Amino acid sequence: xxxxxxxxxxxxxxxxxxxxxxxxxxxxxxxxxxxxxxxxxxxxxxxxxxxxxxxxxxxxxxxxxxxxxxxxxxxxxxxxxxxxxxxxxxxxxxxxxxxxxxxxxxxxxxxxxxxxxxxxxxxxxxxxxxxxxxxxxxxxxxxxxxxxxxxxxxxxxxxxxxxxxxxxxxxxxxxxxxxxxxxxxxxxxxxxxxxxxxxxxxxxxxxxxxxxxxxxxxxxxx
Amino acid sequence: xxxxxxxxxxxxxxxxxxxxxxxxxxxxxxxxxxxxxxxxxxxxxxxxxxxxxxxxxxxxxxxxxxxxxxxxxxxxxxxxxxxxxxxxxxxxxxxxxxxxxxxxxxxxxxxxxxxxxxxxxxxxxxxxxxxxxxxxxxxxxxxxxxxxxxxxxxxxxxxxxxxxxxxxxxxxxxxxxxxxxxxxxxxxxxxxxxxxxxxxxxxxxxxxxxxxxxxxxxxxxxxxxxxxxxxxxxxxxxxxxxxxxxxxxxxxxxxxxxxxxxxxxxxxxxxxxxxxxxxxxxxxxxxxxxxxxxxxxxxxxxxxxxxxxxxxxxxxxxxxxxxxxxxxxxxxxxxxxxxxxxxxxxxxxxxxxxxxxxxxxxxxxxxxxxxxxxxxxxxxxxxxxxxxxxxxxxxxxxxxxxxxxxxxxxxxxxxxxxxxxxxxxxxxxxxxxxxxxxxxxxxxxxxxxxxxxxxxxxxxxxxxxxxxxxxxxxxxxxxxxxxxxxxxxxxxxxxxxxxxxxxxxxxxxxxxxxxxxxxxxxxxxxxxxxxxxxxxxxxxxxxxxxxxxxxxxxxxxxxxxxxxxxxxxxxxxxxxxxxxxxxxxxxxxxxxxxxxxxxxxxxxxxxxxxxxxxxxxxxxxxxxxxxxxxxxxxxxxxxxxxxxxxx
Lengths: 222, 647
Description:
The structure holds two protein chains of two kinds.
Chain A: H1 3-21, H2 29-64, H3 71-81, H4 93-127, H5 137-157, H6 174-221
Helix pairs in contact in A: 1-2, 1-6, 3-4, 4-5, 5-6
Chain B: E1 4-5, E2 12-13, H1 36-50, H2 63-67, H3 70-73, H4 79-93, H5 109-115, H6 118-130, H7 134-137, H8 145-164, H9 181-184, H10 198-201, H11 209-226, H12 239-258, H13 276-281, H14 318-321, H15 336-349, H16 367-389, H17 403-413, E3 421-426, H18 432-449, E4 453-457, H19 460-476, H20 482-485, E5 486-491, H21 496-504, H22 506-509, E6 536-541, H23 544-556, E7 563-567, H24 572-580, E8 586-589, H25 590-601, H26 606-609, H27 611-634, H28 638-646
Parallel strand pairs in B: 3-4, 3-6, 4-5, 6-7, 7-8
Antiparallel strand pairs in B: 1-2
Helix pairs in contact in B: 1-4, 1-8, 6-12, 16-27, 18-19, 18-25, 21-23, 23-24
């Protein structure tokens, strides 16, 4: 990339960053302009990528090369376009059914085999003494029990069913209430960690932008 | 041709008519003669007229003699007149003071039933007592022509009085009975439903005088039984109809009390038993005595093309059919059931709150919020800018490194140099700066080892950002060529489905490069037939859901692949369990992880040079949060104060 164009793009990025920061003073036309600019550029780039990297690469080229299997997605895509017309919207049903069905199957299968079984096996691994791992086996068992207890307590907190009692407000049983309280602590810690991560990411982005502004100013001023 | 006067109703009829147009009585033929019975009847009437109690007017009109010729009456007497005379004789022989309506013999049965209404009967009784006609009061009739002439005179006078009225008297159901003032203002005739009984149906059309009396007695019995002469027993009526019947009783009571009462003999006729469906079909005006039947008023529209035309269906204005579209405001409206469920849910979450709120609280914005936000903004900016310009701030480097980071470093370090690494990106431009700092140490490590890279992305923007990252990383590399070592596979569509396809067969999921070159022809990807043929798979993302989806899809594969992750700090906590379970072999997250990676490699980079800013800004943010929480806990937040002010 020539240096001239890089300088130009740096200056453009500098002013656009300033316009974004203008939102600190409240909503204003500059911020709205930048927002619209980003949305427009993103949409245009998205369309170009879809045409060149999806339609041409995965549909047109295989069809031109004589791939008959590529006619199936072509047909399904054509049927999906009928969703635009209220009269022909039924024709797009098979395509939508295929998308939803395959998507649900993939997601459910992945959730069961990938997350559920994976997490259960991971929790069991903490208690497995035979597993060679650094540290004391008792500490590892204690850690496993802590993980298991935290998991059960968290699950107990999300048990919102209550038995109806006469002249009493329905609520959890005592045992369930204790587990729910412990689970509430675990959930609070998790939410705190997530919030800390979001805050960290936001502060890092702020640092990166301010660093860019200062570097640009110092670079332009010499 | 001269008209003929009816002997019964005293109305003039055409000379050619054989029967009276008004009462259907056989008219006397002109020039005809009366039968002996007729002559006896007329003689009796004449004697009655000659008596001093009679009120016969002295001067009959001249044409009376022309209408009824005395000679003609003596020749032929009709049968009906014979019966009339017989009845009158029986009446005079009996000692009853009640007058007998001898004319009623000629009325048909249906007309008698109609006339059997209690009101009319009672009023007829009153009129019979108070306003007796000369005909009724006439004594035994002897057959003489003079008496017949007198009778004609009386009839003529009454006919003149009728003719003085401009309009003919309205039809009242009993055309044989004389009109009395009481009848004029009496309520309308109520139809008698008693004809529905079998006893009435089996009656013979001709009955004698004895049967006439018997009928009158039966009628009185029915009146006494039903209380107001109602033809149907009240116990057979439905409830709603019985109530109306009592109303009818109240209306009729003063009239019936004035009428003569007869001793009620034994029941001679069975009560009428109406089926339920027929009783329900009875019109309401037949039950309420004196209430005229409401006539349906044809509806008339005053607008539209049918305006002014009666009997048309009402038209609906087009404006009334246009419904304004329902608008929903920003306020959340809850039904009582939803509110109860929400309170119950809140009670489960907050057991100590015995008084759950009954409504949804609106967000409150005040000026204080803006001031607080501005102060916090300035503090955060200062916490970033101060370390940037000042060299007094130094970073506190960690002495312990997380295991996932160490594993990540060891995994990259152990990658074979001939196998490409598949880098999958999914992140937005907002966090590109953070991910750039985080990914740069890993990319540079790969470049330093000369590991080929295949780039793809599950979102469109992510691929462009990833390209820029790799270019920045390669820029510092001396012997690493992008054209030879990096393959740009472009955008991977389909989301989770695309990731699943990639795990199953990467060459099918990503058949071409961004230059529309088949992946099988690319030098870097020679020997790649499955995902496990890659040296490792590195995920660069700021979205934990994408990381979870990819880990799940990889977990379904029978042959595992080394899975590494370069994550934003906001995604790291949710991906951490997958590392703990062994599904992720190593990960780097945030600026802290990048700085640690650089420290481990002993190659400083962008994360290490800015880590002190990062630390100070994070510390400042933590202090701001802590102080703000304490202040708001002591004073109360502006939002809470605004809510309390509202209450």
